[in-house]
């Protein structure tokens, strides 16, 4: 019985390889010359040394990008397996060890490089007010301060800033000086954007405008931690484990159960995963690839397999970017240049002079480095440990009565236990925090809400309750004011509604 042969993958011919290899060599040497010229524009000797180190790191990233592009290195979809039982562990199965001494081995790091521009705010995203007058940063400080008081510990907080957030953050953290917490900051790298067509750097000098540079994603954490001297300082204090999370994830609090598990198992890297829902289909997932634990991101998935990647059945969990990493392992890997996280080429359009130009920025993600660490595995945690605020729809959720604040941590109201958070979609009128605050000055009660969609010029009054599925659609040029004290349950509101207060 004959069987149809599998279609052959298109392989590059020898002549294509030769051409690509030559083009790679030329592009690399042109880049090296351009970076040397950039370094010559730095007058201060100490700054020049630092800048040269940074450009060396950028150059090795760039060269790796060219090589991978030329060889067409992609994952073979057929070799992707689900992780084995010991590569993904359920949080509920972790033993209760309760070793309080382990906190002396811990440091906490928040990724603080992002601006609040996507939510219409100026300055670092971490200073957006999220709950009861507290910013993201205030809540992080309060959580760790409570931990230090409760356990009589001295867990330090590190902030990895970018050149975009550094100056503002330095001013803001002065207010925590009287608190029981040590806050340290360091900067991640500043890499040059490159022209998409010529693959040459956009900046012409070291102090060229901010538009010419970019922070290269949080995969740069390892290198920056070592270069800044902060890693050695932590090791000198007896710290062994770094708990890393996004600055805007309000669910990422220190969990002693995971810390104890990491120290007990000797794992060098733990990634917190959580169950995938339809809202998270694009999130990166852990896989086993040729016997190795890896993070698979949607950008790496061939087009014909994207729907399979989004499937909740095949890939059940996704990466929360709450990571527990061994500091000595980081030091060894960085010093031996062993970390090669997958490169994410990010295309942007920037204005230079009077014209718009297409640029590339080469980024890496901290989660992608998992394959370089011994004993690395995932722990499937409750959804409550993943509470990111990326949009004003998320902001409505965390400001609502679904949660209450306890020692800087957001806790879910017990009546919602076991239920998924409501799906909230606010339209473009609510994109910026200012628009959101003026239209929803008082948070509605949403304890019994499943789904909320609001589009158009809509304002909510005081004491509004939303239950079940609520859809409010206001047409262009019209206005809907939901009156004070309204109770909306399983309704669609459309048209025009303005209530005059008497």
From TrEMBL:
Substrate binds at residue 218. It comes from the Eukaryota. The gene is UGP1. GO terms for molecular function: UTP:glucose-1-phosphate uridylyltransferase activity. This is UTP--glucose-1-phosphate uridylyltransferase. Its EC number is 2.7.7.9. Keywords: Nucleotidyltransferase, Transferase. GO terms for biological process: (1->6)-beta-D-glucan biosynthetic process; glycogen biosynthetic process; trehalose biosynthetic process; UDP-alpha-D-glucose metabolic process. Belongs to the UDPGP type 1 family. Plays a central role as a glucosyl donor in cellular metabolic pathways. UTP binds at residues 125, 188, 217, 248, 390. It catalyses: alpha-D-glucose 1-phosphate + UTP + H(+) = UDP-alpha-D-glucose + diphosphate.
